[in-house]
Design goal:
alpha/beta; two-stranded antiparallel ribbon; 11 helices; 10 strands; about 40% helix; NAD(P)_OxRdtase_dom_sf; AKR
């Protein structure tokens, strides 16, 4: 396994990280625990979750799986998206974040979070309130590093500026949708992260499985796939993305690897990317994705992938999560 610094921090994370959105939902408890242990046994040390994943079941499963192995993991979780119907059950106010952190610690069966992330920008809470709260969490020892997620470039830069002006701990990372099917971060976010030393943590690196080659057409949805189990996912399927998937499959065949591994390897080679989050609903799927670490992409192959995916630098992001108005 290759390890990189998370942004300009001294924290080392595996080039491939484990996403756990499906744990407790599309992957049952026993299978999820096997996936976590397989990831640890094969060098993955970064595990990412959130307080809302599978109605908090993801955190509970991770807490059980890491008993006796907590020291092996860089554990990341998030808060800030809608948690319930109450007026303070969302956002990044001091009230909400402190409550959610304490509950996450209990579910994860730990007394500290390695990377605590704000799940999305909160336009209704002053940024200095959020950043002072996070700084207090770091100083208390409950949190070691802080990161953002789903921030626009200007929102992230504003947060960095406030942290520097007030002498607070600053964000070391940003989670964003980033893949061969979504290169929109390269317009503003990637240059910002390169300049400010912020690590990028891509989510949806396979565009929800579209780049894996499993979807042959909009109508032909494989049984058990995300599009099959979550009808809302079908909005992501279109002819342009399926055409890109076919081109990636052709390139992967020439290299003797899977389309998923090739797509992940391309992301691992991108500037400022610290770790790429990949989900899995079975051990075999994780095993396939681990191949991405050892694919030797040369300059010509990288240029070919850049060329076939170039149109996806523009237009709308594949996904972004914001607070409702």
């Amino acid at each position: 396994m290759n390890f990189r610094r998370l942004g300009n921090s001294g924290l080392k994370v595996s080039a491939l990280g484990l996403g756990t959105n499906a744990f407790g939902k599309r992957s049952d408890r026993q299978t999820s625990i096997r996936i976590i242990h397989h990831a640890l046994d094969h060098g993955i040390n970064f595990i990412d979750t959130a307080n809302i994943y599978a109605n908090s079941e993801s955190e509970r499963i991770i807490g059980q799986a890491l008993e006796g192995r907590r020291h092996e993991v860089v554990l990341a979780t998030k808060a800030g998206l809608v948690r319930g119907e109450g007026p303070n059950e969302r956002g990044s106010s001091r009230y909400h974040l402190q409550h959610e952190l304490d509950n996450s610690l209990k579910r994860l069966k730990t007394d500290y979070i390695d990377l605590y992330q704000i799940h999305t920008f909160d336009p209704y809470t002053p940024l200095d309130e959020t950043l002072r709260t996070l700084d207090d969490m770091v100083r208390s020892g409950k949190v070691r590093y802080i990161g953002a997620s789903n921030y626009a470039a200007w929102e992230l830069m504003k947060a960095v500026g406030i942290s520097e002006r007030l002498g607070l701990n600053r964000y070391v990372s940003i989670q964003t949708s980033y893949s061969l099917a979504d290169r929109t971060p390269e317009q503003e976010l990637v240059p910002l992260c390169q300049d400010q030393g912020i690590g990028i943590i891509p989510y949806f690196p396979l565009a929800g499985g579209i780049l894996s080659g499993k979807y042959s057409s909009i109508e032909a949805v494989p049984e058990g796939s995300r599009a099959d189990t979550d009808p809302n996912f079908n909005r992501f399927l279109n002819h342009e993305r399926l055409a890109l998937s076919r081109n990636i499959s052709t390139a992967a065949q020439e290299l003797g690897c899977t389309p998923s591994a090739l797509s992940l390897s391309w992301l691992i080679h991108r500037p400022s990317v610290s770790t790429v989050i990949v989900g899995a609903t079975k051990v075999e799927q994780l095993e396939e994705n681990l191949q991405s670490i050892s694919i030797p992409l040369d300059e010509r192959q990288l240029e070919e992938l850049d060329h076939i995916s170039y149109p996806f630098r523009y237009g709308e992001p594949f996904a972004v999560y914001r607070l409702p108005e």
